[in-house]
Amino acid sequence: MKAVNNLTLNVEEGELFGLLGPNGAGKTTLIRMLTTTLTPSSGDAKLNNFSIKTQKNEIVKLIGVCPQDNIFYNELTAEENVIFVAQMHGIPLKESQQRTNALLQKLGIAGKKRWAKKFSGGMKKRLNLAMSIIHEPKILILDEPTAGLDPQARRIVWDFIRELKGKGNTIILLTHDMLEADALSDHIAIIDNGEIIATGKPAELKDEHGGENVLEIIFFKKEDVSIMKNQLDGLSFVQNWRDFGEKTLLILFKGGMKNYLKILQKMSEKIIEVENMKFRQNSLEDVFLNLTGRRLRD
């Protein structure tokens, strides 16, 4: 059995590339190969034109890895952990201290004098992130960077990742969080059984594989249902509609928020008010379910 099978992937410099797949899909094997801890049985990959098979020392200088499982020295402070990693990369002590202080400030864990083993789960995750980027790598691999974080801490990490991307870092993001992948990724690849089964921009994947968006409208008057159907006739992106009772219409359509607004515009031409509306936009969860037949955490 092959963990990764004839996989071809292209990540552009400076982009954030999301990699989605269920447990056992081959993501971890792929990352181990890209970080040179596992040599592929055939084929090769190049990071910044360096081969993962023959130029491992150059690859190691290029990359930073924030692993899913936290790795740090329990009986060191956050500052001591990050400075230690910085000096492993040959960064002078004064510069290490300056970089460390700036990073920990941005991630909200500066000035914590207790040992790292006493940190909360979210603080440990942010410490690992700081340790992975202290040497300012050109390529950053993030494995579940916000797992276990509360909403506020997650937002801090999201903003920080966007800042890194804005500086030109190339980032590979492994996540089970579909909202995170959608919010951060320029492109996404879905991997299953060791193969890439779909790749594209999040919006493209949702349009092609995500099924329809759903708009449910409850009207005050039953005759408005027929009026609304007539209004929908000229909209090519509307896939179907269904009646629920006398005053409720379910509209299924492609194209996301832009086309949702077009439907509302058409409705406003003939109908002044409605009793209620509910809108559900298709998601990467729908894409994944349609392509693999299972949810991401299955």
TrEMBL record:
Gene3D superfamilies: P-loop containing nucleotide triphosphate hydrolases. Keywords: ATP-binding, Nucleotide-binding. It holds the Pfam family ABC_tran. Residues 1-218 form the ABC transporter domain. One of its GO terms (molecular function) is ATP binding. This is ABC transporter ATP-binding protein.
